Structures are given as structure tokens and as C-alpha cells.
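re: ur question from yesterday

yeah so i grabbed the chain u mentioned. its 188 aa long if i counted rite. heres the sequnce exactly as i have it in my notes:
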Amino acid sequence: MKKTISLFIMILSSWLIIGCVQVPLEHKDNNNLLAISSVTDSAVSYPRGSLFSLSPKYINETSLKAEQTQSIYHLYSKAIVNNLTKNGYINGLATAQADFYVGFAVALSDDLSDEKINNKFGVTPGLPEKSDLKKGSFLIYIEDAITGQRVWRGIAQGFAHNKLTPEQRRQRTATVVANVMTQFYQIN
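ran it thru and got these C-alpha cells back, copy pasting raw so excuse formatting
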């Protein structure tokens, strides 16, 4: 009996320890740093073929113009849908009951500080500020449609680049989403 309890405690402890993942910064150059962290909140998993639905969350007050915000959210929405679809999940859109919801937000550090992210989201990779660049954060989470409980949370922080072409911006967004979602697929 004691061995069973000890084994259970050891398994539970190791699961909790690996539940929080932090990825080291990618160093191509200092302006393209990308820091990523994620946390597993529940052992729920979703088989390939499960339905998902996007649930974007917008920051109340932002330093960006409304059309800039819409453009950025559109890029991230497409990248998330493409990434999940490529990994075997099905976009339920509004016509079907989703198995899980994918909530996400995008913000500059001027609008959403690391402290606020940590207080409200509970995880931050802590990319240091750089005086000549604006730091941005991409927050994403998976929420179970039946229980309403969060299953997983991830965040990427990098620096915003104003001089990218539309294609470079699309590629960078897809890369950021893929790097964060890789951590979800590893635990799912």
C-alpha cells in the first residue's frame, strides 16, 4: 500500500514539474529574439479530428489604431487555424459544437505589461525590454468546451517589426504560432 501511494505521489510530482515549460530564447539576432513559455493546466487531451473554435480576446485600450489591431488579429487567426488544421484538428466554425476553444490575444508591452500578463495569465517568458524596439506578446490558451476549464496556456514574446513586407509578416506570425503550439502538441 505504501509503495502504491509513493509511486502515485512520485508520478504526480513529475507531472507537475513537467507541466511548466520554458523554451530558451532563439538567437538569430537581438532584434528577432523569441521567448516562449507554456503551462499545462489539465490532463485533458484531444485526438486528431477534434473540433475547435477560435475565441479572440481584445485588449480594452491599445496604442494601435483599430485597423492595425484588426489586421494583426486576422494574421494570427489565420495562422492558428492553419496550424491546428495542419496538425489534424478541424475548425468547427460557428456551425458545430467545438470540443475545445482556442482563446488568444496579441498586445504590445505598452498596452499589456509583463506584470499584468503574469497576474492575469499566470505565465510569462520574461523577454527583456529593448529601448529601441517595442516588445509584443502573443498569448494563447486551450479551453475545454464541456467543462470550461483551461487545459493549456502558452505565450510568446518578441519584438514588433514595422518594416516587414506582408509576406514576411505572415511568415513571422506563422513561425510564432507554430513554436508556441508545438508545446501544446507535445502534451496532447
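noticed a couple things. The mean pLDDT is 84. also The helical segments are 2-18, 66-86, 114-121, 166-187.
anyway ttyl
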